[in-house]
């Protein structure tokens, strides 16, 4: 059941990221004469950048598994979702501060 909740939160974060990209685009790029980007285009840009910048999964050797403390899947997903939400919030906050200073 917790996995369904994580997937739902991840979907909300993806939508929020696309919306944040469209807002930031409107603040910083549109004044340069470039057309506006709507939220669906923001989702596409986010997905493209995320796909291109995410490193491929690394293979852990069996001997390394005994030396590492591996967190549970729940803890790893919760941490990832929290970090993703925090990063998106900070990006929007920093963008807003920069917009107000300009």
Describe what this molecule looks like in 3D:
The model has no long low-confidence stretch (mean pLDDT 78). Helix 1 crosses helix 2. The protein has one domain. It has 4 helices and no strands. The radius of gyration is 18 Å and the shape is elongated. The chain is an all-alpha fold.
The percentage helix is over 70%
Number of domains: 1
Point out poorly predicted stretches.
none
Structural class: mainly alpha
Rounded to the nearest angstrom, the radius of gyration is 18 Å
Chain-averaged pLDDT: 78
Question: DSSP strand (E) fraction?
Answer: under 5%
How can the largest sheet be summarized?
none
Secondary structure: number of strands:
0
Distance between the termini: 46 Å
Instruction: Note the run of SSEs as H and E.
Output: HHHH
Shape summary: elongated
């Amino acid at each position: 059941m917790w996995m369904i909740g994580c997937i739902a939160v991840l979907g909300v974060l993806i939508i929020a990221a696309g919306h944040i990209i469209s807002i930031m685009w409107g603040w910083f790029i549109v004044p340069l004469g470039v057309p506006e980007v709507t939220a669906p285009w923001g989702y596409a840009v986010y997905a493209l950048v995320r796909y291109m910048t995410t490193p491929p999964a690394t293979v852990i050797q069996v001997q390394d598994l005994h030396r590492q403390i591996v967190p549970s899947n729940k803890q790893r997903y919760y941490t990832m979702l929290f970090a993703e939400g925090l990063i998106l919030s900070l990006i929007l906050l920093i963008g807003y501060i920069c917009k107000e200073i300009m």
